[in-house]
Predict the structure of Guanine deaminase.
Amino acid sequence: MTMFRGAVLDTPESPFDGGGLRASGDEGLVVRDGVIVARGAFGALRREHPDEDVVTLDGGLLLPGFVDTHVHFPQVRVIGGIGLPLLDWLEQRALPEEGRLADPGYAAGVAADFVGGLVGAGTTSAMVFGAHFPAAVDALFGAVAAVGLRVTSGLVVSDRNLPADLLTTPERAHDESIALARRWHGAGRARYAVTPRFSLSCSDALLAACAAVLDDVPGAFVTSHVNENLEEIEQVTQLFGLSTYLASYDQRGLVGRRTVLAHNVHPDDDELETLAARDASIAHCPTSNAALGSGPFPLARHVDHGVRVALGSDVGAGSGFSLLKEGLQAYFTQQQLGTDGYPLSPAHLLYLATTAGAAALDLPDVGHLSAGQRFDAVWVRPAPGSTYDVALRHASGPEDALGTTFTLGAAADVAGVWIDGDPVAVTVR
Ligand code: GUN
Ligand code: ZN
C-alpha cells in the first residue's frame, strides 16, 4: 500500500449538472493494488494508516489522469500543419503520412512517438484513431500495452475518396477488423473500436460491414467523425441522399452508448436529439476546430439537448497532446461566442478533460479520485520560478489554481503519471 499526499482536485459530480470542484490542499489517498481504498485530509488519514509509505507530491496539483477521447496515432509527426481547411489538410498533410504506416517498421516508430506524447501530456486513457493497416494497429496496441495506457482503438477503414493506398473493401475491412478485435479486445486494458474514417470515405456497404463487426464483438466501441466542416457535410449528405450526416451512421446502427463521434461543429437539432436518444458521446476538439477553421463548437446546444460531450486533442489537426490546452481553447471558444457560448469555469474544464471522458469511454472506475476508484492520476507541477509557478503560488483558491493550470500548464509541467497505481515513466526534467 502507498499513501499519496498532495493538493488533490477532481470533479466526481458534473458541473454541468449542479456539481462542482472537489479540492483539498493537503489530501491523502491510500492506494492498494491500484485502487484508492481510503481518502481524506492527510493528517487524519495518516493517523489511521501510520505505517504506509508516503509519496509526497510537493507543489502543483494532483488531478485524475486525462482522458483524450479523440486522437490520431498516425498523425503525431504532422502536428502543426496549419493554414488549411479540413479536406485540403487531409489531402496535403495527413493522408500522405498515413500512407507511410504501410511499412510496419515506420509504424512501430510512430507508435513509440505517439505513446510517449500521450503519457508525457498526462493522458492515461484514450480513444485512439488507428491506422489503415492492420500491422500498424498491432504496433499501436503493442506499444500501448508496454506502457499500460487504457486505450480503445481499431483499424481505420475507407473504400472511397481517399488515396488508393488507404482503401479497402467491405469484405477485407470486416475480416481484418475481426482478426484485430480477436487479438486485442479485452487484452489487458485494450478494447476494440470499429473505425470508419468518416462517411465521406465510406460506402454504405462498408458501413454495413462495420455494423457486422460491431455485432460480432460484444462490448466493442464505434468511433468516427461527424459534422466537422461545411463542405464535408454537403458532400456526405449528397453522396448518401440523406438530410443529415449523422443519419449515415445511424441508419446502420452505428450510433449508441459506446459511440464517440468527433467534432459535431455543425449539427442540426434533429441530430442532437438522435445523439441524446442513443446516449452517444461527442469528442469536442477545440484546437483542431480552431486550426482548421472548422467553426466554433455549439456546446450550449449540446448541453441543452443532453448530449454527452468530452474533450479530444485530435492530434495531428489539433495542436498537441495536452488536454490542458484543449480545455483552455474550449473556454476561449465559448467566450468568443458571447451570449451563445456556454460559460465554462475551471471545474467544467477539468470535468471535460477527466470525468466526462471516462464516461464517454465507459470507464466507470477512473475519471475522479474517490475511494473505490482506480488510481489513474497526473501530477502537474510548475518549474520553479516559471510564470506558471508564480501564478500558482498566488492563486486565490483551488478553482483559481485550476484556472491558472489550464492557462499556463503544459506537457512540460507533467511531473508524474500513474495508471492503476503504477508510475508510468515520464521524461524527468
Ligand atoms: N475527418 C476524416 N479524417 C479526419 C482526420 O484525420 N482529422 C480530422 N480532424 N477530421 C477528419
Ligand atoms: Zn479526428
Remarks:
- Residues 70, 72, 129, 225, 262, 314 surround zinc ion (ligand 2) (CB under 6 Å).
